Structures are given as C-alpha cells and as structure tokens.
Amino acid sequence: MKKAKNTPTQPKTPRERLAAKSEKQSNGCVLWTGATATNGYGIISVHGKDRLVHRYAWELANNKPVPADMVVMHTCDTRNCVAPNHLVSGTQADNMKDKINKGRQGCSTGKHGKKLSLDELKHIYSLVDNGKTGYEVAKLTGRSEQHIYQLIRTREARMRRESIRAQQTALGTLKDIQRAVSTAMNQLLMNPILAK
Ligand SMILES: [Zn+2]
Questions:
Q1: Which pTM value belongs to this model?
Q2: What are the φ and ψ backbone dihedral angles of 48, each rounded to 5 degrees?
Q3: What is the whole-number distance in angstroms between the Cα of residue 83 and the centre of ligand 1?
C-alpha cells in the first residue's frame, strides 16, 4: 500500500533540508551541518542523487543550474559554507587562479582546504582536550568535522607511536643489562680460581 502524501512523516524537500541544516556564523558564513565528503565539501541528497551542497545552494539562489563549463567557488574559502553571497560562479581557470592567489595550490593544498597554521592546530587540540566534541570543534573553527576527526586520529597515532618507541627503548635497555649481567656471570664462572 502506498503511503498517503503530506503525512507528518513526509520527508523534507532538499530546500527545507538545506535550510534546516545550515547555521549562520558571526563572520557571515552559513555552514552546512549535514554530511560532508572527506575533502570537506558538504553533500546533500537531491532527488536521490548526492550533490555538492554549495553548488546546490548556488542553484537555489540563482534559480538556474550551474552552467556546464562553470564551477562554484567560495569567496570565504570555507568549503562547507552555503551563504549565497559567498558563492560565485566562474570557470575552472578562475578557480585555479583563485586557489593560487589564496596560496592553497601545490604543497600547501590540504584535502581539507586552507592549510592549518600551528596556532590553529594548537587551538583545535586545546578545544579537544577541554572536552569539546569533534562536531563542536568543527563549528567553532569553521573546519569540517571530518578534518577535526582526522587531526584527532593523527595525534592519537603519533602518541601511540611515541609510546611504542619509549617501550622499545626501555626493553632494549633491559636486554643490554641482561646481557652485561650474563657476561659478568660467565666471566666469574670461568675464573680458574673460583672454578677450583
Ligand atoms: Zn562563507
């Protein structure tokens, strides 16, 4: 039996979901709080198809599809921002030029967007250490939740590696002591005076 239309359980339209999952920030960005891809761009399901949410937001604001040869760029450089006034369309060439100007091309291009400064990184870790969740840290720093979780995992892996290394060093020292003791014992046992 088909479900009746317009029941309270009727799923929201993509436009409604976009509005429901967007949070305005004091800096003017409107951050998408829904799903994001590992590269930090927001993803929204539109009529069964996963779309980049900033492109979808641009289309809603401009009431037309993004032209085939155009890309939608962020003037704020924040990948999960959907503020219509932060989205501009341009050619791929414009996009590359823009990335180079913003210094996130080549080595400095992280898959999560603008490279983190050391201060930013310290700030993120201090928020994490103060008990903030990945979601909260992402909201506070304008980074994607995935990015925050990746940073947490990276730090955990580094701490694990360091503790394994410390353990190995301690074990190595113990083995050295063991070897020295057994050498000394052998020398004592082989001493002809003691052996008599
Ligand atoms: Zn923005």
A1: 0.48
A2: 80, 0
A3: 6
